[in-house]
């Protein structure tokens, strides 16, 4: 079983903090959570996060209230494309 350490809130710390943390603790599997978006998710993965968690930025309450489920689907697809574009071979 792989153990994962949740790093929250990432928006307050940033990818550079995660990269510095991974320096001496490279064996940690870090889940970056809190303020993760499609724009910054790749930066956290490139900094050494093994995964990212997205909540409110993925499922916007106003989109749900308006029944705009296609916007949520589009955002999720864009997020997945951004994550899949990261070259994990660089770790």
TrEMBL record:
Keywords for this protein: Carbohydrate metabolism, Lyase
Pathway terms, separated by semicolons: Carbohydrate acid metabolism
Gene3D superfamilies assigned: Aldolase class I
InterPro entries on file: Aldlse_KDPG_KHG (IPR000887), Aldolase_TIM (IPR013785)
Domain of life: Bacteria
Oligomer and partners: Homotrimer.
Family that this chain belongs to: Belongs to the KHG/KDPG aldolase family.
Name of the protein described by the UniProt record: Uncharacterized protein
Organism listed in the record: Paenibacillus plantarum
